[in-house]
Amino acid sequence: MSYNFQADAAAWPTGSLVVAATRTLVNGVRVDWPVLHLHFGAADGSSLVPVSLANPLPSQMSGTTAGGQPDTGNPVKGGAVYHANPPTYGDGQRTDFQATAHGALIVAPGIDGFTVTPAAAVGSGATPYHYFGNLSTNSVVVKAAPATLYDLEVFNRNLSARFIHLYDLARTPVPGTDVPVKTLMVPGDSGGTGTGLVRSYPVGVAFRAGLAFALTTGMSDSDSGPISGGDLVLNLDYV
After folding, report:
1. Nearby residues of 91 by Cβ (< 8 Å), 6 or more positions away
2. What is the per-residue pLDDT across 171-205, written as a single tens digit (0 to 9) for each?
3. Per-residue pLDDT for 237 more than 80?
4. Mean pLDDT of all residues in 123-147
5. Phi/psi of residue 46, each to 5°?
6. Alpha helix locations (H) across the chain?
7. Is the same domain home to 234 and 135?
8. Which of 172, 177, 157, 185 is nearest to 213 (CA)?
9. What domain range is 177 assigned to?
10. What is the pLDDT of residue 11?
């Protein structure tokens, strides 16, 4: 005996499940052994083909494509793709990871002719900040929220070294009480033409609470010596 069950068309467009029973004798007792047979074919149950290694179930999605071969069908994406010329994608299109002709994943600009030029859109990018030091510790909060510092330039007109202390704070720092996360020395202007300190952080320095600074005459974290007016001029680039 056998029974045919039509597969759910929404789950599988065409197919059939056949439950058959075979009979045998076990120690003189007749036993019915149920056997499941999977078939696929037309939705009306005609032209059914038994599932086997030679006739696998139809697949909505194929496996990965072998290395060195172009995509065929609808493969599961794996690995990267080599293009002799950089592809151009439209808005919202999915892209493949790009590889060199030797199979190396491209993760940096300027490899094998692929060049990535960072460029900020109009109105985006880092925010510039400019400050001219006066007779005080010049305690300032640049951003009272999480920030990232990318560039710092400090120029000194005093004969003696001056120091900038950077704080991870969302409020005005108190030099000598608050502990800076960075202290940088600006060399003294021995030549009378001005000297300076320039720092660039390509991946940025994270300030998780906020970005603040103070300008003092000493290196110590506990220093609170005020600079003279006109000693320092400061430029920052942050987001």
Report:
1. none
2. 999 999 999 999 999 999 988 788 999 999 998 99
3. yes
4. 94
5. -85, 165
6. none
7. yes
8. 172
9. 131-238
10. 42
The answer on pLDDT for 163 being more than 50 is: yes
Answering whether pTM is above 0.85, one says no
Sole residue written with tokens 């010329």: 85
**Domain assignment present for 38:** yes
* Partners of residue 62 on adjacent β-strands: 75
Q: How many domains does the chain have?
A: 2
105-108 LR contacts (CB < 8 Å, sep 24+): 105/80, 106/80
For residue 99, being part of any structural domain is answered with no
Place of tokens 């950089």: 86
Specify the higher pLDDT residue, 198 or 119.
198
Residue 159 within a domain: yes
Whichever domain contains 157, its CATH number is 2.60.120
Same domain, 45 and 140: no
Alpha-carbon dihedral 169, 171, 175, 180, rounded to 10 degrees: 10
- Region 80-103 average pLDDT: 78
DSSP codes, 53-82:
SSSPPP-SSB-PPPTTS---SSBPP-S-EE
Q: Using alpha carbons only, what angle is made at residue 70 by residues 64 and 73, rounded to the nearest 5 degrees?
A: 60
Measured CA to CA in angstroms, residue 210 lies from 149, 199, 203, 229 at distances of 10, 19, 17, 26
Residues linked to residue 163 through DSSP beta bridges, in sequence order: 185, 216
Q: Is residue 83 part of a domain?
A: no
3-state helix, strand, coil in the chain (%, to 5): 0, 45, 55
Distance CA 171, CA 209 (A): 9
